[in-house]
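Quick illustration, no need to memorize.
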Amino acid sequence: MSGIDAQRFRRIATEEAWAPSDMIRRYRGLISENKVDDPGFRSLMGYFLFNESPVTKGVVERLQDAGERRIADMDATGIAKQIIGITSPGVQIFDADTATRLSVEYNDELAEACRRYPDRLYPLAAIAPQDPKHAAAELERAVTRLGMKGAIVNSHTHGEYLDDERFWDIFAAAEALDVPVYIHPQTPPKSMIAPFLDRGLDSAVYGFGVETGLHMLRLIVSGVFDRFPKLSVVVGHLGEGIPFWLYRVDFFHARIVKTKRYEKVKPLELTPSEYMRRNFHVTSSGMPWAPAILYVRQVLGADRVMYAMDYPYQYVPEEVEAMDALPISDDEKVEFYETNATRVFKLG
């Protein structure tokens, strides 16, 4: 796959999706029986689950495989390891009781699948923010008993974001366990999706980044990282656009704090950009574009940027070759591909 000495490093892909077959079945039922009032979910999963194109069918088939086919695809593209988590929106689309029950079942299923490939697949825990105390307890169980490497939260839950203090038991658990929370996108909630949806901009093309970038900024300005200074948050797609806005965010956040424009915007210990450099790591999932990667490495630090493929949604083998050709040194490629991920997810 590459002109680089493959013995010098292992490519670790850090945002790779999985879906239990039971969840896919439930998703189909929610849509076909019109049981969910979420236009973004209907747009996204309706497309993948009811479109008959070879592309969408291939994605859905690969999503449900945490075994031989996934390993074969990794081998074909030179991927040594995957950090694997439940696909968006995960259990967060369900009611609280269903979501909490399924999070336990799906974590057990994924952990068992990954145990068959202990040097290749590393799972993240699905949690149900609908019940924050249960979510915190399930994260602890998943990490201490199942060996999972952190939590994955598919951004908002029925339009609610984790900056609300009622969700902070989740962050307390993650900080105490010293594991990251991966905030993965989903489509914008019903309250904001209309202008995205009618032009086809609601999902990966743009809506994901807008929605998850908003979530990131809500966490920062709410004071989450003053309350949990050692909390580690991972986001994909090179930081969902936020690294490109840091100067402006810092400037105007300072102004609105000084002028007391908003009741809920209080002074913070650091600037927003300093929290980005201290508490966030970003992955290159879906963004194998050298100019953007180099920029984000410059503004956040090379130790904050990790490789990801975004499998199977963006399973494009030639993109690995493009990453191998990044104009950085071989030692820096080792950091990008391997050592940052090993440190953040404690792969040993």
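The mean pLDDT is 97.
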